[in-house]
Structures are given as structure tokens and as C-alpha cells.
From TrEMBL:
The lineage of its organism: Bacteria, Pseudomonadati, Pseudomonadota, Betaproteobacteria, Burkholderiales. Residues 81-572 form the AsmA domain. It comes from Paucibacter sediminis. It holds the Pfam family AsmA. GO terms for biological process: regulation of protein targeting to membrane. GO terms for cellular component: plasma membrane. This is AsmA family protein.
Amino acid sequence: MPAGPGRFERLARAAWLPTRHPGRWALAAGLLLLGGLTLGEALGWPWLAAPLEQLLSKRLGQHVTLERRGFELGLLGAVSLRSAEMRVAAPAWSGAPHLLLAQDIRVRLGYLDLLRARLGQPLRVQRWQARRLDAHIERLADGRASWQFGMQAPESQALPVLLPELGEVEISQASVLYHDALGGLQLQAHWSLKQDPAHPEASFKLEASGQFRELPLQLTLSAATLLPWLDDGEAALAVPLQLQATVGRTRFDFEGTATDVRHLGALDGRFRLAGPSLAAVGDPLGVTLPSTAAFRSEGSMRKQGQTWRVVLDDFQVGASRLRGVFNYDAGRGQPLLTGQLIGRRVLLSDLGPALGSTSAVAASDAPASAPTLLVAPRRRPGRVLPARPFDLAALRRMDAEVSLDIAELDLGSRYLDALRPLQALLSLQSGMLRLHALNARLAQGRLSGALQLDGRGEQALWSTDLAWQDVRLERWIRQERSLTKAPPWVSGQLRGQAQLQGQGRSTAEILASLEGRVRSELLAGTVSHLAIEAAGLDLAQGLGVALKGDDALPLPCAVADLQAKAGVLSPRVLVLDTRDSTVWVDGTLSLRQEALDLRVLVSPKDFSPLTLRAPLRVQGSLGEPALSADKAPIAGKLAGALLLGLINPLAALLPLIDVGDGPGARHAALACKAASQRLAS
């Protein structure tokens, strides 16, 4: 009987078995792998918790910890994660306890979604569930932000963050503490959410409170659903929502639909907005709006991509009423605002803060950190010209092309008639603000020209080129007379032009540096006879006019030619010529010192038996002007009358007799005609 195979032969056969039976070994390996997967799935892959923490920490750039208790990881069909707690640490520079704390979480990710995310698309999370979510999000004044994962560069250098797309979401309790030192925002929000794509009728409500630039902030957001709101692009659906927000005394209410809330891709609905000033609304939005009186408005707004369209059905600021249509394109290198503003009645005083006068923003709504447009003006004792600094930086934030059509512009004085109507184009380009193509009707006349404010430098450069013609002076300047049949103090048709320039950081500084010229002429004019006699201190003729009743003296010539230099206005010629007398004005009006020093000389052309003829002085400040007569000539005449009266009572009248100043009157009349010819040429 042959001997059995030896040990060496058995070993050789064993070595060749894989080659002779490869299917068996593959089956064995598959069974072993399947057993390992089954065991891993059954146990929840607890040994992968640490590698997963390391992977997430590396990808986020922040330390991530997963609570081992209750940790379960599933890899079959999709990646599913369950943990009693997940904590994402705050950046090293932050004092927050954590960036994100999620308790009792469940997350499900599809492999195809992971592959797309690896190719650069947003990660889609099929399911996100947490019993409690707590986040501390912050940004420092130097630009460092806790959401800049994996880098410490300021936000301006950070790459865009692709936020995940969410499927089924359920968060029983959530809170977010947001602190933005760069934007001046502190916010604490609370919400809860249970949302399933198969049952989108669940509601979402968020309530938040905090501060924006030291002003109290309250916000409430209600939406019928959430998930379509978080989708991107064409897949996003419009979701009904309601928003109420209050910042200080500014309140905003919106009811409509929103799409792709993370990027605010689209918005469509009705709004109501009210507040202490338009500037307080425009500043946080990066939109240059003027400071105004308190306002309220309502209308509709629509946003598509980077383009906004706002239709103002009713806008009330102070006593002014306006409406308009505006488009705002934020997708350009320099945002552009275009549109049309239509006003039924506008009071210039309602826009006073925009011109640098008293701010309409209450002290409670004007924190120290707010821009200059929101800061109360400096108080200057004895001064009336607006001294509040312009916010020139605001002029460089965007461009604008807006047409104005105002039915009535009230100049804010009961003595001045309104402009009816006023049409103009308002343009803003690279800090250059222009009001041009100005065409306004004023007291049966016409006002035209342009104004410009160059805000590209540290100081504003202001210039104006205005012309007026056929303006009825008696209608433009309301002249109240106690006698019903008395003529206007002065009447006629005004024509003229003003070409002025100035520079400064406020209206007062611009006027204090004023250079240029103002020329005007009164055509077919008349002046009160009583006013002329009173200006000349003609007692006899003044008494006679008062007894028989005032009448209108024709003005063959009435011209004003004013020169502005370093903020001081000086009359080159300011003459009123009548058949009775010629009135000449000289002196200065200092806008730099806000002081008056004018002299009114009356040269009579006829004889008067009783007069105290003396120059009149207009002095004092712009806020408190004072009219007085030159005391020296009057004192001389009265002293002479007193001395002569000691000799003979009738002789006391001799110093008070005025035979007229023919040469002086002729000189003034010739100067008036020459100035009139220059103006006409």
C-alpha cells in the first residue's frame, strides 16, 4: 500500500488552493466584508467617531467633538449620523463658549449629494433633526468672523460660503446669538421648526431682539413653510411670509413672498415703512437717502436677483405728500438708483435736515456712532445758517438718475409764494450731485438753471447757475397791508440771474466762502409812495400821503447788482429810482459772520418843508436785524432848529427844509440805467 502524501506535499497543495478555487476565496472575502459591515452597522461604527471628528475639524478649521454616548453612524444606502451632542468650538480669538451646540441630532446625507458637494456644488442634507440648537456667531471690527471656516483672513478676502440645502428639518428649540461689531448689530433669536417636504404646511416663526447701532431692535418673521425658501436658483419656490421689524422708532412691515432666503434671490409683496428720517433707513441698506422730517409710506416692492423695484403709492414726510417708482440695481460696480418722484405738495422745511438744518432725528435715534446725517447739528449761539456737517461719503456709495415732478413746492415761509410746478432731474455720479434741467413756475414767472454739489473731496464744492424772469414780485413776496385799498409795498416783474460758488463741509461753511454775482432787475415796477417818504424821513410829505391815502409810484429803474466775495455780499449797484426820490443802498451782508451792515440813502428830487432826512442803517445779525436812522444828521438838524427857535420860532423850521438833492438823485439814476443795460446785454 503506497504511503500517503508527505507533509511537504500537503503544504504545496494548500498553497495552490487559491489558484485552483478563486471563487471560494472571493466568496469568503465577501462574506467577511459583509459580516464586518453588518457588525459595523449593528454597532453604529463607534470606532469611526474619532476619525469623523478629525475629518470635520480639518474641514471646518475648528475643533469638533461628538458625544460618544448615543453615537451611531450608518453607511448603508446613505450616510446617517446620530449623536447625543455635537459641539463646534468657537475660534481661538472668540470668547464665546462654542460656535454651535446641537443636542440629540440626526443627520442623513446621500452619496450622490456628497459627490456633487465634492465637485463644488452646495451640499444637500436630506434630513436634519435636533432637539436643541444653540449658536454663537460673531464678527469683530477687524473683519474676522466665526463663519470663516478654515481661515482667519478678514471677510473681504474670504471665498463665498456655499450653504447647504436642506430636506427634512426638525428643530424643537433653537437660539442664535449674533454679534457683529463691524455692522453694529447684536441679535438674539429664537425659533422652532418642523418641516417635511411631504407635508409643507407646517409653519415657521422667528422672534429676535437686540440692538442695531445702539438702537433697540425687534424682529418677528412668520412663514407658512421654510424648505422651498432655502432652495437655490430655479428650483426655489415663492413662500408666503410676514415680517415686522422695528429699529429705534423706525418700523417696517412686509407681507408677501420670498424665494431663496439665504441670498434673498426674489421678493414680492406689500410694505409699510415709518420712521424719524429717511437717512436712518437708507444707511443700513447702503442706499444714500436724504435726512428728512418724520415720514410714513406704503407701497409694493419686488426684488429679482440684484435688482429692486419699489412703487411708492403714498409717501408722507411731515406735511408733504409724494409718490413714485424706483429701480435699484445693486449688481453694478457702483449701485444705481433710477426712477421718478411725483409730489402733490412738498414743504421745503420737511427736507430741511437734508440741507443741513435742524435734524428731524430724535436724540434717542441718533447714537454717537451714527453717521453725520443722523447726528444733531452743532448749536451756534446767535447763528441761523445750518452748520450740520454733510455726509459726503454717502454721496459716493451709489449713482442715481431720478426725475422730479412736484406740483407745489412750499418754500416754508408765509411771506413767500410756492413754486407751482417744479420739474427737474436729480443725478448723482461718483459723488457729484446735480439738480439740472430745472424748470419751475414762480408767481406767473419762470425759474430755470442748475445746482451742483461735488462731494468727491473732503470738502463739498457747491455751485449754482439760476435765472428767473417775469416773476411777479407782489405775488412772490406776500405783502400784508392794513389798509385794504393800499397798493403793494413794491410790485413788478423780476428778471435776473445768480452765478455763485462755495466750498465747505456744511451749508454755513459754503455760504461763508461764497464767490460770484447776483443781478436782478424789476420791470414795470411800482413802489409805495408812503414807503419812499418814510425811508427819507420826510415828515411833511409822509403826513400828506397818509392823509390822502397811499399810492403807487412808478419805478422807471430798479436794479440790484450784488458781488459775493469770501462770503460777503456787497451791492455794486442797488437803486430804486422814482419821480419823487432815488433810493441807493450800500454796505455789506456778511454770510461768514452772519452780520448786516447796510446803509439806505434817499436822494429827494423835490422840495419838502419838513424833513429829518438821514441815512437808514440795517445792522445786527441775520437772526435779529435792526433798523435805525443815522443819528448824527438828525441830531444836527434838531440842534440847529433848537438854536434858531430861540431867535424866532419860525426860524426853527429852516434846518428841516429840504430843497432836494438833484445831483445825487441824477447820479443814482444814471448808475441804475447803466446796470440795467448791462443786465439786458
